[in-house]
Amino acid sequence: MNGAEMQNKKKLKSKEILISNNIDNIYYDIKVVGFVYVEDYNELGKVKGNRNIDPKNISNIKESYKEHGIFSCPIVCKKDNKYMVIDGQTRVEVSTQLGLPIMCLLVEVPDVNKVMIAANANHRNWRPEDYLKHGIEYHKNKDYSYLKSVHDK
Asked: Burial letters for 111-149: b for 16+ Cβ neighbours within 10 Å, e otherwise?
């Protein structure tokens, strides 16, 4: 066995939690395999052509993690003895900076770049209207209801 084959056979330290009844393809031929609990960030790789990480997002997400923890798992696929981050590279970067392990959704995909573009194109941040709706429905705050009535005029 040559050096490259030995490298590919090297056991990853991350713990995979596989789903025995594989979920059917859910979107763009994505097959959910399970989850992977990553503590060694050297086992994660970046997909070529992914967006640059915005430093403003790093600081915002870092503050949110410190206050609330992580709510959504990055999406990864296994390739060349690495877990390639398809979606959630900023969450992975923040977890790395904070020294926190991270749980990732492990998928199999035929075309990583196609899925990466689709995942990033569907994300949008909350708009002011979203915060108003949340304040009205969740907090039942009359001030938010008033602001909405002013906004709707």
From this structure: ebeebbbebeeeeeeeeeeeebeebbeeeeeeebeebee
